[in-house]
Amino acid sequence: MQSSRLEAIITRLKAMLSDDSEIEVRRFEKEGVEKCIVRYNKESESFELEDLTINETFQFDDIDLVAMEIYELIQ
């Protein structure tokens, strides 16, 4: 059985919550092509997802919702 991609995404997002920086950044790619950039702002306790495929930015305050959006982009 193949390991869960969604679980791997959530693990990376949770790591962002525990880092000491005010703003944490992670990049997600598929086959070497960057699909999105995710930033976590500790002050506002929210995620910002920059979708590089359509050049738009979205705000999330729920880790599950941002994980699902990332999953869809790299699927």
From TrEMBL:
It holds the Pfam family DUF1797. It comes from the Bacteria. This is DUF1797 family protein. It comes from Aerococcus agrisoli.
